[in-house]
Design brief:
The chain is mainly alpha-helical. Helix content is about 65%, strand content about 5%. The chain is built from 24 helices and three strands. A three-stranded mixed β-sheet has the order 1-3-2, with helices on both faces. The radius of gyration is 24 Å and the shape is globular. The termini are close together. The N terminus is likely disordered.
Length: about 500
C-alpha cells in the first residue's frame, strides 16, 4: 500500500505543478529578438516516445481510461454537430503543428466555466463556456492551438511517466480529477497537496517552461492555419480586464492561475511578427455558438430568448442575421412551436443547400413534431449531400430506430464503427438496434460497452452477465463474453490509490 501511496505522491507533485489544464497560467519567458515570424521555433530536443518511460501503447490505454473517468465526472456534449465542429477546428490547427500526422481527439464538455484541457493520447476537451466566451473563431482557435502545443511538446508524457507503475483506473481517475479540478473519492485534499516547499518552487518553474512552449508553438501554428495570431493575447487580455475593471465573475482558470501582464505582452510581441490579415469567422462557428446558447438557456425562460433572437435576426450582416434566425428556430422548436420553426428552417435550407446545420435542424423539427416520414426524407437528402458527416449519419440512425427500421439503422451505425472511435451514444444506439432485430446477446454486449465507456464498470459487468445467459451455452459467444467479464473484474480488483 505504501508503494502506491509514494508513486501517487510523486505523480501528483509533477502533474499538479505542470498545470497543462489551464489556458491562462503564470509564465515568464523572453522572445528572441532575432527570431523571424516565418521560421519554425527551435525548441529543445525532448526526445521521442521511445526515449520516454511511458510507451505509446500505455498512453493509448491511459487515454481511453482518462476519457471514461472524464465522462463519469462531468457531462460531455452528446450533440454530434457540436463535437464535429470541435474536431474540425482542432484538426485544422493540428495539421500545422509539430506532429501533423498525429490523431487528436477533440470533445466538448457541457460546462459554463471558461476552460480547456489536454489529456493523454492527444485528448483535448473544450468547455461550452469557452466557446461562448470566444468573440471570434480565431480566439477559440488560439486556445485550441495552446492545448495542442502541450501535446506536441510532450508535457503530459513527461508529467505522467510514473503512471506506468500504477493501476490504469487509478492513474486515469486521478488525472481526470486534476484536469477538472474535482476530488476523487477516497483521496483527501491533504494527499493532493502533500508536497515539500522546495519541490513546489521547482515545479512552478517547470510549469512556466511548459506554458511558454505551448504559447510559442501555439502562436505560430495559429498563423499557419490561417487564423489571426493576435487573437491569443486579445482573448487572454479581455478575460483579465473583465475581471479587474468591470467586476465580472472571475473565470475558473484565473482563480487558480492568474495571468501576468508579461504573458499577454509576450504573446502579443510574437503575434506582431506575422503580417496582419483580417480573418472572417466561419458560419459553422456562428451556428455552433448559437446552438450552445439555445441549449443552455432555461426552459422556463424560452420566451425571453425567442424575443431576443427576433431582435437579433434583424441586425448585422447577412450571415449574422441568418445565424440569429437559426437560433430563433431552435428556440421555437424548444418551445414546441414546430410550425414557426419549420417556416424559418425551410427557408434557410432552400437558400443555403450546402449548410448541413439548417437541414439537420429541419429534420429534427419534423421528428419532434411526429412527422417521421418527412424527417427520414430530409435525412436521406442529408446523406447524399453530406456523405462524410458523422452528425447526419448518427441522427439518421436514431430516427430510423425510433421508426422501427433497425436494419437500416445498423447499416449507418456499422459505417460509423468503421470510420470512427465509438462513443457512448453509438454504443447505446447499437444496443437498441440489436434488441430490435432480436439479437439480445449483441444488444447486452453493446449496452455493457456503453456503461463501461461512461466509467460504470459494475453496470457493464451486469449487462455482460445477462449476455452470457442469453448466449445459451454457445461456446464461442460464451468464451468471448467471459473473457470480457474477466477483464472488467480485473480492473475492479486493481489496487486503489490509498
Amino acid at each position: 500500500m505504501n508503494k502506491y501511496h509514494n508513486i501517487m505522491r510523486r505523480f501528483l507533485t509533477v502533474l499538479i505543478a505542470s498545470s497543462f489544464t489551464c489556458i491562462i497560467a503564470s509564465s515568464a519567458f523572453v522572445w528572441s529578438k532575432n527570431s523571424q515570424a516565418n521560421d519554425r521555433i527551435k525548441l529543445p530536443d525532448i526526445g521521442n516516445t521511445s526515449n520516454i518511460i511511458i510507451s505509446g501503447e500505455l498512453e493509448k490505454k491511459l487515454g481511453k481510461a482518462f476519457l471514461r473517468s472524464i465522462r463519469l465526472r462531468v457531462p460531455l456534449s452528446n450533440d454530434q454537430e457540436i463535437n464535429d465542429y470541435a474536431q474540425q477546428l482542432g484538426d485544422r490547427v493540428a495539421k500545422f503543428s509539430e506532429q501533423p500526422d498525429r490523431q487528436f481527439n477533440f470533445f466538448v464538455v457541457q460546462d459554463d466555466r471558461i476552460n480547456a484541457f489536454a489529456g493523454p493520447d492527444a485528448n483535448i476537451g473544450l468547455n461550452t463556456g469557452l466557446i461562448l466566451a470566444a468573440e471570434s473563431e480565431s480566439e477559440l482557435a488560439s486556445v485550441v492551438a495552446h492545448e495542442i502545443g502541450h501535446v506536441t511538446q510532450q508535457h503530459l508524457q513527461r508529467a505522467i511517466e510514473s503512471a506506468s507503475q500504477m493501476s490504469m483506473p487509478s492513474a486515469a481517475a486521478m488525472l481526470a480529477a486534476v484536469v477538472l479540478g474535482v476530488t476523487v473519492p477516497g483521496v483527501g485534499p491533504a494527499a493532493v497537496l502533500a508536497v515539500q516547499a522546495g519541490q513546489v518552487q521547482q515545479q512552478i518553474n517547470f510549469t512556466r517552461s511548459h506554458e511558454a512552449e505551448a504559447d510559442r508553438v501555439g502562436v505560430q501554428n495559429l498563423a499557419a492555419a490561417g487564423f489571426d495570431p493576435r487573437s491569443m493575447p486579445i482573448f487572454f487580455g479581455r478575460l483579465q480586464t473583465a475581471t479587474t475593471q468591470y467586476g465580472q465573475k472571475i473565470p475558473e482558470i484565473l482563480l487558480t492561475h492568474p495571468a501576468p501582464a508579461s504573458r499577454i505582452s509576450d504573446t502579443a510581441a510574437r503575434a506582431e511578427k506575422f503580417p496582419y490579415k483580417q480573418v472572417e469567422d466561419s458560419q459553422d462557428f456562428r451556428l455552433i455558438r448559437m446552438k450552445i446558447r439555445v441549449n443552455k438557456h432555461p426552459q422556463n425562460l424560452t420566451g425571453e430568448l425567442i424575443n431576443a433572437l427576433k431582435d437579433e435576426s434583424t441586425q448585422g450582416i447577412t450571415k449574422i442575421k441568418e445565424a440569429a434566425r437559426y437560433g430563433l428556430a431552435l428556440a421555437l422548436m424548444k418551445d414546441r412551436q414546430f410550425e414557426k420553426a419549420r417556416d424559418i428552417l425551410s427557408t434557410l435550407t432552400e437558400q443555403n443547400p450546402t449548410q448541413l446545420h439548417y437541414l439537420t435542424a429541419l429534420a429534427l423539427n419534423e421528428y419532434r413534431d411526429n412527422k417521421p416520414q418527412q424527417s427520414l426524407a430530409l435525412l436521406d437528402q442529408g446523406k447524399q449531400r453530406f456523405p462524410q458527416s458523422r452528425a447526419v449519419n448518427l441522427l439518421y440512425a436514431m430516427v430510423l430506430l425510433h421508426n422501427g427500421k433497425p436494419q437500416q439503422a445498423l447499416t449507418n451505425l456499422n459505417e460509423d464503427l468503421q470510420n470512427y472511435e465509438p462513443t457512448p451514444n453509438v454504443y447505446d444506439l447499437l444496443s437498441i438496434a440489436y434488441g430490435q432485430v432480436n439479437n439480445p446477446v449483441r444488444g447486452f454486449q453493446y449496452k455493457a460497452e456503453y456503461f463501461y465507456s461512461l466509467g460504470l464498470t459494475k453496470d457493464a459487468i451486469i449487462q455482460l452477465e445477462q449476455a452470457l445467459r442469453a448466449a445459451n451455452n454457445n461456446f464461442y459467444l460464451s468464451s468471448q463474453i467471459e473473457n470480457r467479464i474477466n477483464q472488467l473484474q480485473a480492473e475492479l480488483r486493481a489496487p486503489k490509490l490509498l
